[in-house]
Specification:
The complex is a heterodimer of chains A (705) and B (243). By secondary structure, chain A is an alpha+beta fold. In chain A, helix 3 crosses helix 5. Chain A is elongated, with a radius of gyration of 57 Å. The termini of chain A are far apart. Chain B is mostly helical and 243 residues long.
């Protein structure tokens, strides 16, 4: 519905003038027709101005009043409906102002009007093409509203409230206009909104018509003629451009949508038509590749496409790399060494923990959040934006194949079907769209990319500043802050070296908690001997025999197991350190060193080196404790009961007497008898008469027990 | 020490005074906790530094990939921007590497050394425990023999048992005393040990190895500022040339 004042007055004038021009001489007629032309011209001019006024009024009504009342619609919908109506209002207001100024200049008016149109040509094109291209979407939206009765009633109410009923007439009823939109409103109330919207599109188409009318009524030799002519052509161009733009947009929106189809849906889409389409394309492609058919080389487009691909790759790679970076950042934030509790109340440890906690909870977290919001999100949006053009480029290639085939056919046959013509147009539309818009698109993407990278750097800088600030703050509380770095490092190295020595000593101490040595029990009667040796030589020189020693040479001693001797020299006269000179308290002689073991009379903390003699230099730390109770061969036993020997092979026992067990079985292997030595005599005794005693001899040689 | 299995039915005789037992448990408990914390700290520190390095490596990858894009050949402004970014990322990576090496030397390795004492300690404690078991067992044996009638064989056995008991008891007491001595000293040594490490750790965040160059994050911050300034001017150029 166009809200305008019908202009019967103009019509009346027009018709009224006609009859008077019928009579008159040719000369007069010439003059009269001249006059008539001039009149028509003036009428046309007035029509232009008046319609412009009413049009602007309509615009403002739509834009301000109706739009403001449609508050219940979401803002996005309002934007679609009314598009850039504000811009249009601005442009047209200025235009009207210009028109009204020309009204005062009688003679030159048409000339000025022509110039005005030329002046405004670009702006009109710019502003109207956006609106017209968007128009379809707006219509769709209005249709959607119509389907919702509640909403529709509301909209009607608003429109009727804003615009008085009587003024709702059809569109401009002027015979010079091609489109007659006069319809009684009563039957088509539901279309009122759409009518309002279409008036804008129609206005721009009316300009060339109006200009044409003025031109017709202008004398060819009038000064204004060329200007007017140019203006007419210009406005026609404008319309053509807007049309083309609209087609491009339609094509783009058709093909650039990313369709998420399931497999089933995709299969459902296959029909004979699509199959034939695709096979034709494929055959065309193959013919090209085989060289049968020349390929259309469009260097300009190829360059553009190449650049687009690089840009696209750049964005994708950046996105992936940034995703990896964010993952790593997350992993980093997961570990919190500062949460350990070493039970150290103060000093650098506590400061470090505070600093680290601060950094993680504040600085890094903030960094992460900013990174996600300011770098990651824009980058994702950018990546999404690239999908549309990708699709279009793919489609263009398909359409190109179609186009080439159609061209071939055209050459061969001379005519093409309607569908083929449509295919040609589609290709051309796509191609021109891409060629026109890709360069700007590429540039915009590069700018966007640059912005993203700069933001990334700015965030890194901020993080670095934060870390620096906090760490320096922490440093002022450190004890050695005044010491320059290399000296400090040396200091740390020294201190660590010292403490590591300390640690080593701790470790050794712990490892020294060894089992007590398996000392052999003393032979009876030898305690006094040991005491004598001990007092004469000192405790460090006492050794115990671990195995029976049978001396070979004249100076060698024969000693039983368990005997205590004192060391005189730890090598013999020839320098052999395997033979030691010892004192038994009675005799002196050599014994093999391997059969001696250091003997300690009093319990002490000193290290024992197990059963091994002084052969080895390296310290053998035996971490495994040998059980104190088990000695490999138990040879020292005590007779539990008295036993009378009944043969020469047996030996007598007294209760409580310590005996030396030599073998726990007899010659035939019978375990019931044991070979023992007692009082220098050897013989068999029943095994059950013996009580086993554990090996560790009394530590306590204690003079106090 | 409830993990000592003892035979059901045998009353647990308190052969060592409760206070001693309590002291021992307290000291050892503290050390056990310290061990756990040390292990945890070592692990976390290692993982944290690894993650730090991974982060800066992935930042370097960003600029490397950008550099390898053919756009750099076509577009000199883009090339200069990306080169500057690449330089900055590589420097940041180098600094991080330095920092991590420092941390490795002054914190992680000392932590390892500290932790290596604990196994010896636990072995020593086990040995003490075993000595305690033996002590208990032999003590019980002696008690058992004491309760029997005083016959010859019994007396002999009693004597034997007493002889066996004495070294074991002394051994246990020696071990106990030693550990009770050393454990608190070891626990206290952690103060001397950790403080310098952590001080070095804080300093590593601020100053690089070389004393003459400015502290790294400051250097980094300055580098970033320089970069953003350069890009702003570059952007102005592209803006004016593009439209």
């Amino acid at each position: 519905m166009v809200l305008s004042f019908p202009e019967p007055a103009v019509m009346a004038d027009h018709r009224a003038e006609e009859p008077s021009s019928r009579s008159g001489s040719p000369d007069e007629e010439g003059r009269v027709s001249e006059d008539r032309s001039l009149l028509h011209q003036r009428l046309a001019v007035r029509e232009l101005i008046d319609t412009e006024i009413s049009y602007l009024h309509t615009l403002q009504l739509c834009a301000s009043d109706i739009r403001n009342h449609l508050q219940q619609l979401p803002q996005g919908d309002l934007d679609i409906l009314f598009s850039n109506i504000d811009d249009i209002i601005k442009v047209n207001s200025r235009f009207l102002h210009g028109l009204q100024e020309t009204a005062s200049k009688e003679e030159e008016q048409v000339y000025l009007i022509g110039n005005l149109f030329l002046e405004f040509q670009e702006e009109f094109e710019h502003v109207y093409k956006v609106y017209c291209a968007n128009y379809d979407q707006a219509l769709l939206l209005v249709d959607a509203y119509r389907k919702e009765p509640a909403l529709q009633r509301e909209i009607q109410r608003i429109i009727e409230a804003v615009v008085p009923h009587g003024l709702l007439t059809g569109a401009l009823e002027q015979e010079c206009l091609v489109v007659d939109l006069a319809r009684p409103l009563a039957h088509h109330k539901s279309q009122s909104m759409s009518r309002g919207l279409v008036s804008l599109c129609e206005r721009i188409t009316k300009y060339p018509l109006l200009l044409q009318k003025i031109l017709e009524n202008t004398l060819p030799d009038a000064g204004a003629y060329p200007v007017l002519q140019r203006a007419t052509f210009a406005l026609q161009d404008v319309n053509a451009n807007i049309n083309e733009y609209k087609i491009r947009k339609e094509v783009a929106s058709k093909y650039s949508k990313v369709e998420q189809l399931t497999l089933r849906e995709r299969l459902a889409r296959i029909n004979t038509h699509t199959l034939s389409k695709k096979t034709t394309r494929l055959s065309q492609l193959l013919k090209q590749e085989a060289g049968l058919v020349p390929k259309t080389e469009d260097k300009e487009f190829d360059d553009l496409e190449e650049r687009f691909q690089w840009v696209s790759v750049c964005v994708t790679e950046l996105k992936n790399d940034l995703a990896a970076y964010l993952d790593n950042l997350e992993v980093f934030l997961r570990f919190r060494p500062h949460e350990c509790n070493l039970d150290i109340p103060g000093g650098p440890v506590v400061q470090y923990c505070n600093l680290a906690r601060d950094l993680q909870l504040k600085a890094f977290l903030e960094f992460k959040q900013r990174l996600e919001a300011l770098v990651w999100q824009p980058l994702c949006s950018l990546a999404k934006v690239l999908v549309g053009p990708q699709n279009l480029i793919k489609k263009r290639l398909d359409k190109l194949l179609d186009f080439e085939r159609v061209e071939e056919k055209l050459l061969e046959v001379g005519s093409v079907t309607y569908e083929e013509e449509a295919a040609r147009h589609t290709y051309q539309a796509l191609n021109s769209l891409l060629v026109a818009e890709l360069p700007k698109f590429n540039q915009l993407v590069m700018q966007w990319l640059g912005q993203v990278l700069r933001t990334f750097v700015a965030l890194q800088r901020d993080l670095a500043e934060q870390v620096l600030q906090r760490a320096e703050g922490s440093m002022t509380q450190l004890p050695h802050q005044h010491i320059p770095e290399p000296d400090f490092r040396k200091l740390v190295e020294n201190s660590l070296g010292q403490t590591s020595k300390q640690l080593r000593s701790f470790r050794e101490n712990f490892e020294k908690v060894l089992p007590p040595p398996t000392t052999q029990p003393l032979l009876p009667g030898s305690e006094r001997q040991v005491q004598a040796l001990w007092s004469r030589y000192g405790p460090g020189k006492l050794y115990q025999v671990t195995n029976n020693i049978s001396g070979a040479g004249s100076l060698d001693l024969t000693l039983p197991r368990g005997q205590i001797v004192a060391l005189l020299q730890n090598k013999d006269t020839k320098g052999n350190s395997g033979r030691w000179l010892v004192d038994t308290g009675g005799h002196r002689g050599y014994v093999p060193a391997g059969k001696l073991q250091p003997y300690r009379v009093v319990p002490s903390e000193e290290e024992r080196r197990g059963q091994v003699g002084p052969h080895e230099d390296s310290r053998h730390l035996t971490p495994e404790p040998t059980p104190t109770c088990s000695v490999p061969t138990v040879t020292q036993v005590v007779a539990a009961y008295p036993f009378l020997a009944r043969s020469s092979q047996e030996v007598s026992l007294q209760a409580g007497q310590p005996v030396t067990l030599l073998e726990a079985q007899d010659k035939k292997g019978n375990p019931e008898w044991s070979l023992v030595e007692v009082n220098g005599q050897r013989g068999y005794v029943p095994s059950s008469f013996l009580a086993r005693a554990p090996s560790p001899a009394p530590w306590g040689w204690s003079l106090t027990s | 020490m409830s993990w000592i299995p003892f035979k059901i039915g045998q009353p647990k005789k308190q052969i060592i005074p409760k206070t001693v037992e309590r002291d021992f448990e307290r000291e050892y408990g503290k050390l056990q906790q310290l061990e756990e914390q040390t292990k945890r700290l070592q692990k976390d520190m290692k993982k944290s530094t690894d993650a730090d390095l991974a982060m800066s490596k992935s930042a370097v990858k960003i600029s490397l990939d950008l550099l390898s894009n053919p756009l750099c050949e076509q577009d000199p402004d883009f090339l200069s921007m990306v080169t500057a970014l690449d330089t900055a990322m590589k420097r940041m990576d180098a600094f991080n590497q330095e920092k991590v090496n420092q941390i490795q030397k002054t914190v992680i390795e000392p932590l390892k050394k500290f932790g290596s004492v604990f196994p010896s300690l636990s072995m020593a404690v086990k040995r003490r425990e075993q000595a305690l078991q033996d002590y208990r067992r032999l003590q019980a044996k002696v008690e058992k023999h004491k309760e029997k009638e005083k016959t010859g064989p019994v007396l002999a056995k009693l004597h034997q048992a007493r002889e066996e008991l004495r070294p074991v008891r002394d051994d246990f007491e020696a071990k106990n005393r030693q550990l009770l001595d050393e454990m608190p000293r070891f626990y206290g040594s952690r103060l001397d040990y950790f403080q310098p490490s952590f001080e070095a750790l804080i300093r590593a965040q601020v100053r690089p190895v070389c004393a003459t160059s400015p502290p790294a994050p400051w250097r980094q911050a300055r580098l970033w500022m320089h970069l953003t300034h350069r890009w702003r001017t570059t952007r102005k150029c592209t803006r004016s040339s593009g439209t």
